[in-house]
Amino acid sequence: MKKVVLFIICCFLLLGLNACNNVKNVDKEVKEMNISKSYVTDENTKEIYFAGGCFWGIEKLFQSIDGVLDAESGYANGKEDIIPDYKTVLGGDTGYRETVKVVYNQDKVTLEQLLKAFFYVIDPTVEKRQGNDIGDQYQTGIYFVDENAEKIIESFVEAEKKKYEKFVVEIEPLSKFFKAEEYHQDYLYKNPNGYCHIIPKTFEEINDIIKDVPQLSKYIKPSDEELKNNLTDLQYNVTQNGDTERAFTGEYWDFFEKGIYVDITTGEPLFSSLDKYESSCGWPSFSAPISDENITFKEDKSYGMNRTEVKSKSGDSHLGHIFYNEPESPNGVRYCINSASLKFIPYDEMEEQGYADLMYIFE
């Protein structure tokens, strides 16, 4: 009898040890995931919220992406008088969507890439359903927290809409988000055989799938109302109506400090002090832009003249004109630019203001 009791006790001990090992294995796997449960936030840390059906799969999808710092399951944008929990939301008619909060480093992964991943795994033509999951909480949506993200999302979604006859993904600002119960967090890592409407191999392939997604310009042109509120009358009329400031009156015509000049409307980098030279024309003069990709040209036959207008690419702002065979220019080229179109960023402030990637040009 004692032997039987001893045998039973040993069995329980072994089961306990196995259970502990299983827990340890799960904890180890969670720690080795592509996301970090603790991270330092800075100006490159951004967040965006995706509702794509059951949040278990959407959470793991974004956890699988390089550059994502954290992904957290929760409930977003429901009725004001309801504090959500899983049972309540499952009952329907709460307005809450099963949503994943995604925190990412925009230097390592772009919002466009995250959007590509999202649309790769959802069906944007069905309402309140994804895969086998049917219900109000499974409505697809993208919820943003800043204007720049909103503009990128709108531009990306505009292209997506053209692929379908019907498009029902919600695009809204985030109004509220509640973290889901702890057992929902990292669910598919804790339960590798758990249900998911996303094909499992997608988690392994997603970084390759999104690696070549082009980045929409981060220098997005504000609305006309915003421009009128933020610019002086002269800046607005020059950049938006093609006016020209009077010679020798602009802020930068005889200004030669070290730094870069950006589009006053979008912040897009345009010219460097390294290419600015003294000119007798009375306007800021540059021999070249920082990058040809940020400049566009347009034929200008106004005022009975045949000239080439210079515009910023992202903001489509009128900057000035380009002239050739200029004796004062080091290379014979003169970008004759209005000060009112420009904002100067001193070299010592470039990193602080988000232009650290251009500091190399002064080395």
In the CATH hierarchy, the architecture of the largest domain is 2-Layer Sandwich
Strand order of the largest sheet: 7-6-1-3-2-8
Beta strands, count: 16
* Poorly predicted spans: 1-36
What is CATH's topology name of the largest domain?
Peptide Methionine Sulfoxide Reductase, Chain A
The biggest beta sheet is recorded as: 6 strands, mixed
Content of β-strand: 15-25%
Radius of gyration, taken over Cα atoms and rounded to an integer in Å: 28 Å
What's a quick, concise take on this entry?
The chain contains nine helices and 16 strands.
List the helices and strands and how they pair.
Elements: H1 2-31, E1 45-51, H2 55-63, E2 68-76, H3 86-90, E3 97-105, H4 111-121, E4 129-130, E5 133-134, E6 141-144, H5 147-161, E7 170-173, E8 177-179, H6 187-190, H7 201-210, H8 224-230, H9 233-241, E9 259-263, E10 269-272, E11 285-286, E12 295-300, E13 307-312, E14 318-324, E15 333-337, E16 342-346
Helix pairs in contact: 4-5, 4-7
Notes on the protein architecture:
The protein is α+β, with helices and mostly antiparallel strands and 363 residues long. It has two domains: 36-210, Peptide Methionine Sulfoxide Reductase, Chain A (2-Layer Sandwich), CATH 3.30.1060.10; 224-362, Metal Binding Protein, Guanine Nucleotide Exchange Factor, Chain A. It is 28% helix and 22% strand. It has helices at 2-31, 55-63, 86-90, 111-121, 147-161, 187-190, 201-210, 224-230, 233-241; strands spanning 45-51, 68-76, 97-105, 129-130, 133-134, 141-144, 170-173, 177-179, 259-263, 269-272, 285-286, 295-300, 307-312, 318-324, 333-337, 342-346. A hairpin with a 5-residue loop joins strand 9 (259-263) and strand 10. Residues 1-36 have low confidence and may be disordered.
